[in-house]
Structure prediction request, 158 residues.
Amino acid sequence: MKDDLMPFKKLLEENEYKFTIGKRIVLKTILDSKTHLNVKEIYDKIKEYHHIGLATVYRALKVFNKLGIVKEININGISYYEMKIFSGKPLHVHFKCFKCNSIIDIDSQSINFDYLKLNKKVEEENNIVIYDSNIMFLGLCSKCREELKCQDQQNLEE
Prediction:
């Protein structure tokens, strides 16, 4: 087993879960992805090379989510997954495009700092402890905005 998976193996075993081949493959698929994936997308990537059922993907994701390995982001009833621990960017804001449905991580040091300040302020003003939060902006991504702009320009020329 590769050393990069050892922390996950240890975490699973400490919580009395086996680090099966199915879990390893699902985890590696998420680790290798540059985008947020839903269950079907994870399964589609896996089934090309491995004989793992859809139920195995669901079970692995349930365990990973429970242990805080992955973060589940629910948008319009569809769950998307990204790495939560050991990801290099544990705190970030998301953006979802209405048109193409892409989910984009907003990686900005100043925004992340404001995000931390907001969490702290909410905790202090409400006497609570926040373990996790999700901020999702909705709108049009730059690619879809450009396409819309081109369509508008064509309509003006007609």
About this structure: The mean pLDDT is 88.
